[in-house]
Amino acid sequence: MFLLHYHFGMSKPPVKISDLVDAIQLGHDEMTSYLDRETGAVVTVTRDDTRAAENEDVKERAPEWQEESIALAAKILEDADGRFLELPDKFDAHEWRMMEVFTFTVNAEAARSVLESAIHGKGAFRRFEDSVNRYDLDKEWYAFRDAQYAELAIKWCKQEGIEFVP
Fold it and tell me: What tens-digit pLDDT sequence spans the chain (166 residues)?
């Protein structure tokens, strides 16, 4: 009966925050992730899938293994009812700001100073990562970062009126 309830659209299944976090963290310029409000699943399509869905010539030349993802991209493009909701992307997450805030949580002055310097200029993400590892702060950093992503996902769900489970 519970599944029938969802099937007839009377209620939407809650989304897992961890699914949203995974999709946001894996965000890339060449792909976009969406929440399928009907199923509660997170789906991802590439820019190539979308191009193929928009252009019949490209679609006809696409390999067989890509047919399913092109069909999904077409569904998303044609979605007039708001079934598919675009997730926040890496720019919404602003990981550089996360690194900056994390540095303020580090108690050891030497490590904090190195981290503060590491986040400026070209190669900041790599220097920060190296510094976090050098000072054995990797577990703390990843826990902090994951919590920030979860907070973003929860805020997004609340903004969009999406039910969620931790």
Answer: 333 333 444 467 899 999 999 999 987 778 999 999 999 999 999 999 998 888 887 777 778 888 898 889 999 999 999 999 999 988 888 999 999 999 999 999 999 999 999 999 999 999 999 999 999 999 999 999 999 999 999 999 999 999 999 8
Do residues 60 and 49 touch, judged by C-beta distance below 8 A?
A: no
Spans of all domains in the chain: 2-88, 91-157
Tell me if residue 63 falls in helix, strand or coil. Answer: coil
Which stretches within the chain are classed as H helix?
2-7, 17-25, 47-54, 56-61, 67-78, 90-93, 95-105, 109-118, 124-134, 138-160
